[in-house]
Amino acid sequence: MKYAAMPFLFPLSVVLVLCLITDVGDCRMGWMVFGSCILKHMGFPALLNKDVRCAANEMFKIFYKMTTRKCINCERYFYCQSNYNAVYNCGQNFKSIHTAEVISNCREFLQGGTDSRANQKAKRHGRRGWNCARKYLCAVNCKYNPSHGTCSLSNC
Q: Are 42 and 52 in contact (CB under 8 A)?
């Protein structure tokens, strides 16, 4: 059966994979809480929208890099870049902006509470289309190199 015939599999697989690769505690409950948060704030019909699916996928790719690379001082860069990619690679419309906002907020909720003002600012910075690399790489001593996708001793 083709993916198009089963559109609900994509959001469920994204939720499950995000749960497995992020440090969210008990994964069995975590993915259900995360999924419930997404559905509560977006509704199931929104998950069928191509811009919503695109934005979720873009955020997943950046969150995956963040959790697998584990570069020091780079969390805000990844928050910013995931929101930027979700919006600017996926239609630059209300759906992609709202998806980035909901996923960011649900992820933070799942990890135990309110986000710091600085993290929220980084996410807004990305959604507004500002330069994440200029603001959150060398300026904060982040060692991630986006060109190579690696952490290094010297990035600047």
A: yes
Q: What is the pLDDT of residues 99-139, one digit of tens each?
A: 999 998 888 777 766 667 888 899 999 999 999 999 999 88
Contact 125, 135 (CB under 8 A): yes
Superfamily per CATH, domain 8-151: Serum amyloid A protein (1.10.132.110)
Tokens representing 10 are 């994509």
Mean per-residue pLDDT, 31-42: 81
Distance CA 61, CA 149 (A): 12
Domain boundaries, the chain: 8-151
CA separation for the pair 133, 135 (Å, rounded): 5
How far is the C-alpha of 142 from the C-alpha of 150, rounded, in Å? 11
Q: How far from chain centre, in Å, is Cα 115?
A: 14
Half-sphere exposure of 14 (CA within 13 A, CB side): 22
